[in-house]
Amino acid sequence: MELRPGLIVMDLAMPRMNGLDAAREINRAMPTIAIILFSGYAHLQKLDMLLSAGISAVVDKEEASELIAVAHDLRNAA
């Protein structure tokens, strides 16, 4: 079974590939999928770099309560 997610939530710090590289790969393969960067390190990254990697939205882990609202907004915008 092939997965076709409508939304992906990921961190910058991951074991095999960092979030920016993963977002670039996902965006190349499935450009219509929204990607939310959910990270405690998001504030350290330049927004233009995140957007160019295919990241649709950024939610800081300190603002975890916003994650559902952002995900909902992205799904409704699709």
Could you characterize what this model shows?
The chain is α/β, with parallel strands linked by helices. The protein has a single domain, classed as Response regulator (Rossmann fold), CATH 3.40.50. 36% of the residues lie in helices and 18% in strands. The chain has helices at residues 19-29, 47-52, 67-77; strands spanning 7-10, 34-39, 57-60. It is globular. The mean pLDDT is 87.
Could you give a short description of this structure?
By secondary structure, the chain is of the alpha/beta class. 36% of the residues lie in helices and 18% in strands. The longest helix has 11 residues, at 19-29.
Sequence-ordered SSE layout with sheet pairings:
Elements: E1 7-10, H1 19-29, E2 34-39, H2 47-52, E3 57-60, H3 67-77
Parallel strand pairs: 1-2, 2-3
CATH class reads: Alpha Beta
CATH superfamily: Response regulator
Biggest sheet features: 3 strands, parallel
Spell the H/E element sequence: EHEHEH
How are the strands of the biggest sheet laid out side by side?
Answer: 1-2-3
Shape: globular
Uncertain runs: none
Secondary structure class reads alpha/beta
Beta-strand portion reads: 15-25%
Short key terms for the protein model shown above:
78 residues; alpha/beta; Rossmann fold; three-stranded parallel sheet; 3 strands; 36% helix
